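Progress note, project year one: complex with adenosine-5'-diphosphate.
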Amino acid sequence: MRKLFRFLKPYKWQALIVVVLTTVQTLSQLYLPTLMADIVNKGVVGQDIALIIQTGLIMLGFTLIVTVSTIVGRLFATRTAVGFARDLRRDIFAKVESYSLREFDKIGTASLVTRSTNDVTQIQNVLVMILSMLLAAPIMAIGGIVMALRTDAGLTWLVGAAIGVMVIVILVIALRVLPLFKSIQKKIDRVNLVLREGLTGIRVIRAFNKNKYETKRFDGANKDLTNTSIAAYRWMGVLMPTIMMLFSVSMVAVVWFGGLRVGAGQTNVGDLMAFQQYVMQVMFAIVMSTMLFVMLPRASASAERVNEILDMDISIVDKTDIIPETTCKGCVEFKDVSFSYFGAQEPAIKGISLTAKPGEVTAIIGGTGSGKSTLVKLIPRFYDVTKGQVLVDGVDVKDFPQLALRERIGYVPQKINLMSGTIAKNVRYGKEDASDEQVREALQTAQASEFVDELLDGIESAVAQGGTNYSGGQKQRLCIARALVRKPEVYIFDDSFSALDFKTDAKLRRAMKGEMKDATVFIVAQRVSTVMNAERIIVLDDGKVVGQGKHKELLKTCTTYKEIVKSQLSLEEMA
Ligand code: ADP
Ligand code: MG
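Model obtained:
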């Protein structure tokens, strides 16, 4: 929590105003019962109407001060907390955007969402309370005790007893509630995770009739959260009436024992009334602090989770801003590269060595899970290698600024990802300043023109979130156009032709051939027909290279390749 206070810096004056105002408010409140005692003791008993009116007006004045300072104080407290939360969310988002994929794998997307929304709100709420109570509560408690004892020292024991019982009750309950509040935050994470999966995977869930299963899974997470919340708030529910009861019992005790003292002439009615109000103020201050202490651990759990995001060591950072001297434009080289994902026991790829040069197509083929996507993800340095070296343009990718490195690469991910907006906007993701002409050209090469031109708004046609208003093959072609428009040195197509029919696939590759004469091309594919003509085919199995060469050579030397081919082509085609 303390670490986050740096976010309060821009609001330090507002926060100071809040503290000053609540202090003014509290002190005024402390003064009011004394004035009332005056009215009763001197005005009423002494039949002094002028004094009653005069003191009454002063009381009215102080009440006004209390009201105004409360309202303005609250306003500034809210503004401070809300501004604080906005800055915090902004910094969280900026930080997360600089994460490498490894950090995403570590925390998980669902938790990132909860942390930047719900957790920030928790902190914001507590901040309002801290600002308006942190100083007010102690002033009111201590001031109230002092004033009470000043009005009638004879009842000291009563004040002590009331406070003592109250503190014990609160402590007993707080100790039970705190751990529960801490675990609530984790359970919200779980609900978010299941909810996200249920919403994004809705098509799969329908197709496999898993509605019931998913509903049950959600119910499980939801009930778990509910039960913990109920357990926590049950204690809070006990707390409030208990405190109210203590309040009432104390008041009765004050009147009882105070009345005896009035009867014995040891004090008078006005002082007794003031005393009663002071005791109430003290108890109220204690209740306020309790609420703060109950909410504080929950917020500090949230703060911890937020800090984890902000303090995360980013595994991929730029060593320099200087673009290094390159020796071999467009070359990509792997030198004995191994890589393991975060938390994985086995490396996803091991001991990979290969060289790709401009004008060449390097195809990567292999069963699912053999590490094809992993291999190509290392070229734009989405992850850092565990062992070995990846070189682009003859330079270790770690020696490039990330921007400069990725500028050289046109990457089409296996998992299609389009942004909501228009087609043109999505293509321009590849090159911000691309002209309409360049956008059209890229779409043309990607064989997307045939359907884009038919759309009513052409390249300005809308793209829904995730591109759901286009078919799989259409989306793939838009993603390809997005990479093409960059005209990069290195192209990476991760299984980008799988949703295309054979005819479009062939047409697309013919069109691209002209486009990519001088580029280095990586094609990850499932179909032998897609990779057959590549200059180099790399056969992956279980993260290892089991064959490397041209189609014809591999047919003779590599059994894994032969099996893949056999499963797809007729014998004549093989030859
Ligand atoms: P392919 O593209 O050949 O189908 P991948 O490269 O996607 O295979 O995956 C290779 C292996 O790495 C698989 O065993 C997969 O389970 C694992 N893997 C892929 N992505 C991740 C990830 N983000 N975290 C942990 N393991 C992963
Ligand atoms: Mg893959």
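The domain at 322-408+492-575 is CATH 3.40.50.300 (Rossmann fold).
Residues 372-373, 414, 495 surround magnesium ion (ligand 2) (CB under 6 Å).
No further modelling is planned for this target in the current period.
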